[in-house]
Write a structure and sequence with these properties.
The complex is a heterodimer of chains A (about 80) and B (about 500). Chain A has about 80 residues and is mostly helical. Chain A has one domain: ACP-like (Non-ribosomal Peptide Synthetase Peptidyl Carrier Protein, Chain A), CATH 1.10.1200.10. Chain A contains four helices and no strands. Chain A is globular, with a radius of gyration of 11 Å. With about 500 residues, chain B is mainly alpha-helical. Chain B has two domains: about 180 residues, no CATH class; about 210 residues, no CATH class. Chain B has 23 helices and no strands. In chain B, helix 5 packs antiparallel against helix 6, helix 14 runs antiparallel to helix 15 and helix 16 packs antiparallel against helix 18. The longest helix of chain B is centred in the first third of the chain and has 36 residues. The chains are: A mainly alpha (about 80), B mainly alpha (about 500). The interface between A and B is medium-sized, with 12 and 17 residues.
Chain lengths: ~80, ~500
C-alpha cells in the first residue's frame, strides 16, 4: 500500500495533478519521471521524511510498493 | 563405379595436413561469420541441433562445443582465460547470493569486480599506462608483450552484469554451470556483442531453444542484411577510399577528407550493425533472442538520443551500472551531480574502446556534449520557445543535422590512428578545402560514391519497411529462403576483396 503522503510528495515534485499509483507502478510509467527527475523525487522523499537512503538501497527499488517499504524501514529506525 | 584403387588415388590428392590446419588456430586466419569455413561449420552445428532437437542438454553442449572451437579459432589459448573468467564469476555469483552478512556480500562483490576489471585492464591497458609513465618520467620501462584476448571487453561486461544484478538482488544466480558457460561462450555475441545481460539470456535457456517460423524468417532477413551491409558496403568503402585518406590525410584535399569522414561514418554503421544483424540472425536460428544494438542512430535529435540508438547494449550497460549509481551518489549536487556522472560515464565509454588517446578524446567529446547539453537544456528550450520553433519539423531537422555533424567530428577522431592524424584531417577540411575537386572525385570514385549513398539509404529505411520485408521472407517457402541466402553469399563473395576485412569492433 502506497501511503498518501508519499503519493503527494511525488505528484508535487513531478508537477502532476493526479496519478493512480499502485504497488506495481514503475517510474517509467509515470509522466515526467525520467532518470534526471528521479533523483529530485528521491531527494524530495528524503527531505520530507527526514531520512537518508543509501545509493544501493534506492537502486534495488523496482516499483512504488518497494519504495514505500524502503521508506517504512527507514522510519522504523 | 569407383573402385578402391580410384578411391586411393583420390585420397592421395587430399592433403590431410591442410585439413588438419583448418582445425588449428592461425592468428592470420581467424574465423569470422563471413568466411566459407564458418558457413560449413555452422551448417554442421544446425544439423546436430536438429538431430538433438529432443534433448536440450545435448543442444546446449553442442553450442558450447562449437562456441569453444569458434573462440579458439579466433583467439587461440585465450579460451582458457575465458573459461577461468566464466568459472570465477559463476562461483562468486553463487557465494555473493549465499553470503550471510552484508559485509561479506560486499567483500565478495568487490573482489570479483577487481578480478574482472583487473584482467580487462591488464590485457588492454597496461602498455598504454606504461607509455604514459615513460612519457612523464622519460623512462624506458619495457612494454609487455601482450596480445589482446578477443572479445574480452564484451565477455567481461557480460560477466559483470551477472554478478552486479545478483549483488543488488534483482536476479538470482543460476545453479547450473552449464547454463552460465553457454551464456559466456555464446559464439554469436562473444566477439563483438551485443552485450546481452544474464537476466535476459539465462531464462531463454529454460525455453524451447528452437526457432519458430518467424524466427527463421527473421534470421534469414538479418543475415542477408548483415552480410550486405558489412561485407559489401562497409568493407568496400573502407578498403577503396576511407583507408587511403586516413592513412595520409595531407595528401588529399579538404573536400576529400570531408567525404572520407562522411564515408567512414556510414562505414562504421554498416560494419557494426551488419555484424550485429548477423549475430542476431544466427542466434535466432538457435532459438535465442539477443538485444538489438542500433535504432537508426543518425535520426537522433540530440547526443543523448544518439546513445539511445547506437551500440545500445553498451550504453545501457554503462547507464544502468555506472551512471545511475554515480548519479545517486552525487544527488546532493542536483543537476551538476548528474552532469558530472554523465561526464565520467562517457569518458569511460571512450576509453572502453581501446588504449589510445584518440579513444580518450572521442569519449571526452561525447561526455562534454552530454554534460553541456544537460546544463543548457532549460536555456535551449526557452530559446526555441521564444522563436516559436518548439515541436516543429524545422527544429527537428535542424537538431538531426547538428547531432549528425557532432557525431561526425567524433568519428574522425575515432578513425584516426593518432591525434595528429585527426588534426590533419580537420586542417585539410578547413584550410585546404578545394570544393571543385568533388566533381573529379565522383568520376574517380563512382562506385564508392554509389555505395556510400546505398549505405545511407539502407540506414534510413524505417523499421516498418524492414518488418514488411521480414514478413515476406517468413511467408516464403524454406527453399526460397535458402536460395535468397545463397544468392546474398554469392554477391558477397564477388564483391569481397582477396583480403577479408575484420569487423572494426573486434579490436575492442
Amino acid at each position: 500500500m502506497v501511503s498518501d503522503r508519499l503519493k503527494k510528495i511525488i505528484l508535487n515534485e513531478l508537477k502532476l495533478d493526479s496519478f493512480e499509483f499502485q504497488d506495481e507502478t514503475t517510474a517509467n510509467q509515470v509522466p515526467g519521471w525520467d532518470s534526471f527527475n528521479h533523483i529530485n523525487v528521491i531527494m524530495a522523499v528524503e527531505k520530507d521524511y527526514n531520512i537518508h537512503f543509501k545509493g544501493i538501497e534506492v537502486l534495488k527499488v523496482k516499483n512504488m510498493g518497494e519504495l514505500q517499504k524502503l521508506v517504512d524501514s527507514k522510519l522504523q529506525n | 563405379m569407383l573402385s578402391f584403387i580410384d578411391l586411393n588415388r583420390f585420397m592421395q590428392y587430399i592433403d590431410f595436413s591442410k585439413v588438419q590446419q583448418l582445425f588449428l588456430y592461425d592468428p592470420s586466419d581467424q574465423l569470422y561469420f563471413s568466411t566459407s569455413f564458418f558457413l560449413f561449420f555452422f551448417f554442421a552445428l544446425l544439423l546436430f541441433y536438429r538431430i538433438f532437437s529432443k534433448s536440450k542438454n545435448l543442444k546446449i553442449y553442442t553450442i558450447i562445443f562449437f562456441s569453444l572451437f569458434f573462440y579458439y579459432k579466433n583467439s587461440g589459448y585465450f579460451f582458457l582465460l575465458l573459461f577461468a573468467s566464466t568459472f570465477i564469476n559463476f562461483y562468486f555469483g553463487s557465494w555473493i547470493y549465499k553470503a550471510k552478512t552484508g559485509g561479506m556480500k560486499k567483500l565478495l562483490f568487490i573482489s570479483v569486480l577487481v578480478i574482472d576489471l583487473g584482467l580487462l585492464i591488464y590485457f588492454k591497458y597496461t602498455n598504454f599506462f606504461i607509455q604514459i609513465i615513460n612519457g612523464f618520467t622519460s623512462g624506458n620501462i619495457q612494454l609487455l608483450n601482450l596480445l589482446l584476448p578477443v572479445g574480452i571487453s564484451f565477455y567481461t561486461f557480460k560477466a559483470m552484469s551477472y554478478v552486479i544484478e545478483i549483488f543488488i538482488e534483482t536476479m538470482e544466480p543460476t545453479n547450473n554451470l552449464r547454463d552460465f558457460v553457454l551464456y559466456m561462450y555464446f559464439f554469436p555475441n562473444i566477439l563483438a556483442g551485443p552485450i546481452d545481460r544474464a537476466v535476459a539470456f539465462l531464462p531463454q535457456i529454460e525455453g524451447e531453444m528452437m526457432p519458430s517460423k518467424e524466427d527463421m524468417g527473421r534470421a534469414v532477413f538479418l543475415i542477408m542484411s548483415g552480410l550486405f551491409k558489412k561485407a559489401v558496403i562497409a568493407d568496400y568503402i573502407g578498403l577503396n577510399f576511407v583507408d587511403r585518406v586516413f592513412q595520409v590525410p595531407l595528401r588529399f584535399t579538404g573536400v576529400e577528407n570531408l567525404l572520407a569522414s562522411y564515408a567512414y561514418t556510414i562505414q562504421i554503421y554498416c560494419d557494426f550493425s551488419g555484424y550485429t544483424d548477423m549475430a542476431l540472425g544466427i542466434a535466432s536460428l538457435l532459438g535465442f533472442k539477443l538485444m538489438d544494438n542500433f535504432n537508426i542512430p543518425f535520426l537522433a535529435t540530440s547526443i543523448a538520443d544518439y546513445w539511445r540508438r547506437w551500440h545500445i547494449s553498451l550504453s545501457t550497460w554503462l547507464l544502468d551500472y555506472l551512471f545511475k549509481p554515480m548519479q545517486m551518489s552525487f544527488r546532493r549536487m542536483r543537476i551538476y551531480g548528474s552532469a558530472l556522472a554523465i561526464f565520467i560515464t562517457f569518458l569511460l565509454v571512450g576509453f572502453w574502446h581501446g588504449a589510445s588517446w584518440t579513444f580518450v578524446v572521442f569519449g571526452l567529446f561525447h561526455s562534454t556534449y552530454l554534460a553541456v547539453s544537460l546544463l543548457t537544456q532549460k536555456f535551449r528550450k526557452a530559446f526555441w520557445d521564444k522563436l516559436h520553433l518548439t515541436g516543429t519539423k524545422t527544429l527537428k531537422v535542424f537538431q538531426i543535422l547538428i547531432t549528425f555533424h557532432l557525431v561526425l567530428i567524433t568519428a574522425i577522431i575515432f578513425r584516426s590512428d593518432s591525434l595528429a592524424t585527426a588534426q590533419n584531417v580537420f586542417h585539410q577540411i578547413f584550410k585546404y578545402f578545394h570544393g571543385a575537386v568533388f566533381f573529379q572525385w565522383i568520376t574517380g570514385y563512382t562506385q564508392v560514391f554509389v555505395f556510400i549513398l546505398i549505405g545511407y539509404v539502407l540506414h534510413f529505411i524505417p523499421k516498418s519497411v524492414d518488418n514488411k520485408v521480414k514478413n515476406i521472407i517468413t511467408a516464403s517457402p524454406v527453399y526460397v529462403q535458402a536460395l535468397l541466402l545463397a544468392l546474398m553469399i554469392l554477391v558477397v563473395v564477388q564483391v569481397e576483396s582477396a583480403q577479408l576485412q575484420p569487423v572494426i569492433y573486434f579490436n575492442f
